Amino acid sequence: MQEGREVPLEFASKKFTDAERKWDTRERELFAVKWAVEKWCDYVALHHCTVRADHADLLYLVGVDKGKVFRWALALSRLNFTLEFLSGEE
């Protein structure tokens, strides 16, 4: 926080591969969160972080019990962060 408001520490982007582009939206959104959390794992490992995403389905990954989405959710569950929904308008 800076002067009472949140400010980004860093920006990053990644282009999906041809195979990744074929995934459904939930898979791409979760992969993006996983990629970002892994990219900034030093921050996440040392401090609680909040990830804000505009894809509400990410909040309901608890029920996933197989496949790559399950593996990603399991890997993310070991890290110290909270996932919050942020509407696209915000």
TrEMBL record:
The UniProt record lists the keyword Hydrolase: yes
Species annotation: Gregarina niphandrodes (Septate eugregarine)
Domain Reverse transcriptase RNase H-like: 2-78
Recorded superkingdom: Eukaryota
Keywords: Endonuclease, Hydrolase, Nuclease, Nucleotidyltransferase, RNA-directed DNA polymerase, Transferase
Protein name according to UniProt: Pol polyprotein
GO molecular function: endonuclease activity; hydrolase activity; RNA-directed DNA polymerase activity
Signal sequence interval, chain numbering: none
Keyword Hydrolase: yes
Pfam families: RT_RNaseH
Coiled coil: none
